[in-house]
Write a structure and sequence with these properties.
Layout lengths: L1 H23 L17 H7 L2 E3 L12 E5 L7 H12 L3 E5 L5 H8 L4 E2 L3 E3 L12 E2 L1 E2 L11 E2 L6 E2 L6 E4 L5 E3 L16 E8 L2 E6 L15 H10 L3 E5 L7 H16 L2 H24 L6
Parallel strand pairs: 1-14, 2-3, 2-14, 3-13
Antiparallel strand pairs: 4-9, 5-11, 6-8, 7-10, 10-12, 12-13
């Protein structure tokens, strides 16, 4: 009996320790607002009062003046595309920051001709560290580019089907799209200036396209004038939402989400009362059992 009790206590302690580890271990996933490491965007959340969204169904019914940042590394369902259409048509500003994800699916559903090229943008001359970090020095006057002289992108792509009126930022003339991935410019590969940021009016709202979501991460947001662009986005928004539902998830994130759901269920009044009652009954069982246990007379 003592060995069984010991094993039960040991198992309970290990389970509790595992739960606490999962709960308090920082996220390390790309673009997560609770990730404090180089690839997260916790800096932006702390600085600009960002509101993360775990579902596009939670978007406001009156989005006028609100901004939603979407990094679409997962496909949107038809219902989610309807939410995005409603958000923009009612006056919201949708920022799609993408490089090699599913941004074009959203653009097609919105009825816009603009697309993300999906090809790597390289700049062998005007760059930050190497050709994979192109400096964006051609910025058109706009509230989003105010007090911003240059941006630095990180393994970015470019935009296509963009008119001069829609373009807000262009890569340098030395940049090019690396179609075949060999790192050198071929005759068939488009050269700069290439559009990398654009604005499109749609309904009562607008759509902003940024061909590199990496400018928002903790290791990139303070390089060059990236922070200025982010500050302008936040300053021109009544509320800044960041969609988290279309980012890839690790086992850690899925487990934490499951624990949060369990916590929400346990925090309801009925469940809380049931747990308290169960705890009282469990505490009284040994006393009841001791009273019922027959005594042995000499």
């Amino acid at each position: 009996m003592e060995l069984r009790r010991f094993l039960f206590i040991l198992t309970a302690v290990l389970i509790i320790a595992l739960i606490l580890t999962v709960w308090f271990l920082p996220s390390n996933e790309d673009f997560r607002v609770d990730n404090p490491f180089w690839n997260g965007i916790k800096n932006i959340r702390a600085e600009y009062q960002v509101q993360p969204l775990d579902s596009l169904a939670n978007l406001p019914s009156s989005p006028d003046g609100a901004t939603l940042l979407v990094i679409p590394y997962l496909s949107c369902t038809s219902t989610e595309l309807e939410h995005l259409n409603y958000f923009v048509s009612r006056g919201g500003r949708l920022i799609i920051a993408d490089d090699y994800g599913h941004g074009n699916e959203i653009l097609a559903d919105l009825g816009l001709e603009a697309r993300f090229s999906g090809q790597v943008l390289l700049d062998p001359l005007i760059n930050y560290k190497n050709k994979h970090f192109p400096r964006i020095v051609h910025l058109h006057p706009d509230p989003l580019t105010e007090n911003t002289d240059e941006l630095v992108f990180n393994h970015a792509t470019s935009l296509i089907n963009i008119t001069d009126d829609n373009a807000l930022a262009l890569s340098s003339p030395f940049s090019f799209l690396d179609y075949n991935g060999d790192g050198t410019r071929e005759d068939v590969e488009p050269t700069g200036p290439l559009p990398v940021i654009s604005r499109h009016e749609l309904g009562d709202g607008e759509v902003i396209l940024i061909s590199d979501p990496s400018i928002f991460i903790n290791s990139m947001d303070t390089i060059a004038d990236n922070e200025g662009l982010i500050q302008n986005i936040a300053a021109t928004a009544s509320v800044l939402y960041v969609d988290q539902s279309h980012l890839t998830s690790s086992d850690l994130h899925r487990t934490r989400s499951w624990l949060q759901q369990v916590r929400e269920i346990l925090s309801t009044p009925i469940v809380t009362a049931g747990l308290v009652l169960a705890a009282i009954v469990a505490a009284l069982i040994p006393i009841w059992y001791k009273k019922k246990k027959p005594t042995i007379e000499n």
